[in-house]
Amino acid sequence: MDWNEAAEDLLHQILMTTPLPVREQISGKIRDIAEGMAEEEGKSRVGTNTVVRAWVESTPEALRGELSRQMERLGIEEP
Description:
There is one protein chain. The protein is mostly helical. It has one domain. The chain has a two-stranded parallel ribbon with strand order 1-2. The model has no long low-confidence stretch (mean pLDDT 93).
């Protein structure tokens, strides 16, 4: 599945806020979820909105309260 450059950049920014010991695991999880979402929607490319949705979905429920602040710091509007 192709990723547009903005989606790759956003994923990189998100991962830079993730603790190093779990960064690779989270990267794979977000990628898998985003590609699955794009495929289900009949898209051939992952975009930034899909990355944000995958990020939210991959974040454990107990940590989701922190997402609003993280999105604000990255200049992302909540989906």
